[in-house]
Amino acid sequence: xxxxxxxxxxxxxxxxxxxxxxxxxxxxxxxxxxxxxxxxxxxxxxxxxxxxxxxxxxxxxxxxxxxxxxxxxxxxxxxxxxxxxxxxxxxxxxxxxxxxxxxxxxxxxxxxxxxxxxxxxxxxxxxxxxxxxxxxxxxxxxxxxxxxxxxxxxxxxxxxxxxxxxxxxxxxxxxxxxxxxxxxxxxxxxxxxxxxxxxxxxxxxxxx
Length: 208
Fold this sequence. Notes:
This protein has helices at residues 113-127, 143-157, 165-192; strands spanning 5-10, 13-17, 38-43, 56-61, 73-78, 84-88, 91-95, 103-106, 196-199. By secondary structure, the chain is α+β, with helices and mostly antiparallel strands.
């Protein structure tokens, strides 16, 4: 299990660690019994078990899905039962395992009951179309285009405008992947060193 990252501030520094130290790694002042500028908080991991989600876009490292045909990321859509629909060189797969460590991006609000009730029907119907036969093309016809075209098909049914590839990446993918990148950088540093210390940024929100 991945260790939790703890964040605290002291002497105008932002300090990341796996456990609260007895002394400040920056100034050497004892921390025990002293009032910190902010109470230590645990930063949640950006990764989650995709099979415990519903109606979400899931993003995982491609090495977890060797048939994805890409070198970086693999994407899929979860149904209401946590089965992950994803397009590979073999066509559409319906995975009940293999997505336990991925980034989850909710696509449906909890109060959208009509869409939740139809989600599985939409997803299964979309997946069996001839478009998604095993004719994988890495640049234009891949796991990402499968997810984007499915989402746009749902938007069309809902009477809403379609998303371009650029808008989808900017609005849904990039904000989550930036957080993953920052979190992974901190984890890798802490695995080699005891602390990760940076100058405190005004109005910084470390968990965003």
